[in-house]
Amino acid sequence: MALGFIMLGAKACIAAALVISLIGILLVTQEAHELDPELAGSLLIGMATLPLVTVYLAGGGLVRAFEALISALLPERIVRDGLVLTLLCGAAYLTSWRLDAVAVMWMLFIASAVAACITAFASWRHWPVELNFGKPAYAFREWWPSLLPIVIMVFIDTLMNRTAVMLLGWDGYVKDAGIFSAAANMAMLIALPRVAVSSAFAPTIARLSAHNDVARLQTVFAKATILSCAGGLALAMPLLMFTETIFHLLGNGFSSGVELTRILVVGQLIGVAAGPQQQLLTMAGHERAAATLMAVSAVINILGCIAGIALDGVVGAAISTSAMLIFWSISQAVYIHVRLGILPGVGWTVKARVRSEQSDKVL
Fold this sequence. Notes:
mainly alpha; 2 domains
């Protein structure tokens, strides 16, 4: 059945990406005479990049399921953005090319192709031998109730990560949108430990949830939260220290990114400190609730960014984005406590330590 699920998911993802890409290319081609040539070229390259993005995102999830966390995170988080930055710096300092949106999109296309190839190789390398001797089996009735909320969550996650950038560009803050995107990508590095921890603990959480072992589930979730929080803090400290230096290297025009990064880091730290709550809800069979909370947070983020941009421009967008992350974390924590009887990891650890100290005093 695992082989059937993998084959179905791969075919569906690639087919959907190709269809959307072709439709987008046709629409841009038909309306090209009404668009700026640079915008039309950028959109066409972006549509061509979409299938490659699908390959490394879906493939990364597959590799993560094979318990190869570093290989799963490397293509998207490190290779793609790192290669784009390398190509951009190389073109700026070593050539006389005019760096416009089309040139940057070509760099993104190349980096996405490399990331997709690395993901495909990682999938082949970590592919379990047992799957080579099995026949694909399909159970749509069992898969569908969980698939739809997860698909919705993936879509909303992408939307939430790009809401501020899209709204800034829509309102004419084109330069600020680029700076915000750079700051957001830097701040998202803090979430990497949570992603790694949630992937590592997911099988254990699913098993304990299936046996309704709340006590052990609480302990495991607390450990996952502490690891996630510790990793986030370990990345946040040097990031905050060297943020100004990093943006200074990018040029004087990026100086406002320092404040944006610090604001966004606050929201990411709160999310990391709450632990892998979304993974807990999904593995515990509450994926619909997870999707609902995520959708509500996305709507709040859109409204907040609109208001924030109107009041304080790009800084308002950053404050709104961080506030949304904090609201999302708190709402998930409340739901988990009410429905699953599980306290947030850090809170449970503090409570357990206080009880232990009180017991020692009594003894």
